[in-house]
Fold each of these.
Amino acid sequence: MTVQTVTATINGQTYTLTLNGSTGKYEATVTAPTKTSFNESGGYFAVTVTATDTAGNSTTQDATNTANRLVVKEKVPPVISALSPAANARMTTAAPTITGTIKDETNGSGINLSSFSLKIDGTAVSNANITFTPVTGGYNFSYTASGLAQGNHTYTVNVSDNDGNAATQQSVTFVVDTVAPTLNVTAPVNALVINQTNLTVTGTTSDATSNPTTVTIAVNGADQGAVTVSSGAFSKAVTLTAGTNTIVVKARDSAGLETTVTRTVTLDTVAPTISGLTITPNPVDTGATFIISVSVTD
Ligand SMILES: [Ca+2]
Ligand SMILES: [Ca+2]
């Protein structure tokens, strides 16, 4: 008999195959579905071919035949986003938590978790130690590092989708700084007693990891305004009030860690008073002793 029609149905679309005279085969050039087959049952689109002869007999071959399975891959890579710590962030813990989001596009093949890679300073973290929380289109991930040394650290994140598209690798360098700055207040010494209203507070500060440091000075709770720190040295003139003055000097590194030094300075501008002086006896015999007695208050 004579073949009348040959059709192929793929993803709900039916195509007519035409006879290629040179090969003797029925052929069609078909545009692939616009979505991945990854999410289809079995991971493929069934290609159902039906041949009908002029007598009306027809035969159908479906995807139980493995050759009738069309695999379609999407080409859009997943995206790594919302990474923390951010670039140049200063973490005041040696055990920062690294978090981020990995998502594939809507109707994409989805994140292939087994492809996920987190490296810290080039050392891979076992995925078994990473928490993955499903979100639409992918996952949030979270890993708490431990024992990181002071200074720079770089983590890199890689992931692919189920169709093998690799995300653009993300690499972030941050800083661990758990050490407060040094602060040496060279003047005044503690418990200084002076009779000058003006006092210069001087000192030095430094930080091994997060220079520059900033310095603030408060006298009796009143901030004294900007303090210039040059090569770690600072000097600030302040005005004392009579009596006890509490001077609080704070050094703060760029990670936000603070060191505080408190000095107590007493301002006394009032001279002592002398009263009630007596000389006994007076007059006194030559060569004899006498006693001077005086009241002095301050
Ligand atoms: Ca994709
Ligand atoms: Ca520091």
Note: The longest strand covers residues 151-161.
Amino acid sequence: MRCSPEVKTALVTGGARGIGAAITATLADAGWRVVAADIDARAIDKAERDWGDAPITGAVLDVTDRIAVSGLMDAHGPFDVVVNNAAIPADMLPFAELTPEHFAQALKINVQGSFIVAQEAARRMAAGAIVNIASRGYLGGIGGAHYVASKAAVVGMTRAMAVELRWRGISVNAVAPGMVETRMIEGFSSAMREKMTEMEPEGGPLDPAVIAGVVAYLASPAGRSMTGQVLLVDGGKTIGTGLY
Ligand SMILES: NC(=O)c1ccc[n+]([C@@H]2O[C@H](COP(=O)([O-])OP(=O)(O)OC[C@H]3O[C@@H](n4cnc5c(N)ncnc54)[C@H](O)[C@@H]3O)[C@@H](O)[C@H]2O)c1
């Protein structure tokens, strides 16, 4: 179903749960027609019950499958806003224990998936905004070097895309969240979670709605006037200790 021309259309990948579901709901509340695409059909079914009558369409999609991505763009696009949010969790293995498979998987889904979706979308977009969800982890930390590398690649790709696409009126920015309360951090051991929570200036993980609000701003006309930026949304954890 195509909506009237004044209703803008957004695509959110990994939109069935966690931060993606919050972005989907926030954009729909702000008047966007949203396609929430996720590899997990059961998660979409569950989310659809929560969405009720909101202008949200769920779609099963693997972001690494270019034919499927292209088909979704043709069926539901062109999109005015694309949010590359789908990713696999960061298992925080020490560097010495990582395998080539860990690296290949993180790069395939977190980087190639975002690349495929952004490229297929940009080919069809007249103007608009692309928002890539990176992670504060791109700065580096203990464990999960494959995840860190994938998110640093997302940041690099964001900057390169922004330079090229600005001439077409497409802004490209990255949002780099700190610790957010979703399934992604459920896999952390309680010791790891306690340690990480202790260091969060907000006293614990952020609500996914906080990240969704930043994405909604980047999707708005004011937000689109900046491009190539990485917005760290982490309660200030990464600005330093405050000590000289
Ligand atoms: N939760 C955090 O603390 C945190 C911190 C920094 C960054 N992030 C980033 O935020 C984004 C969302 O993470 P989340 O915490 O909501 O995780 P989540 O696991 O709750 O949600 C991720 C969603 O992506 C979907 N997905 C995975 N692979 C896919 C694929 N190939 N194609 C389509 N969909 C796929 C999953 O089914 C899931 O619904 C990710 O990019 C993540 O790296 C999360």
Note: The chain has a mean pLDDT of 93.
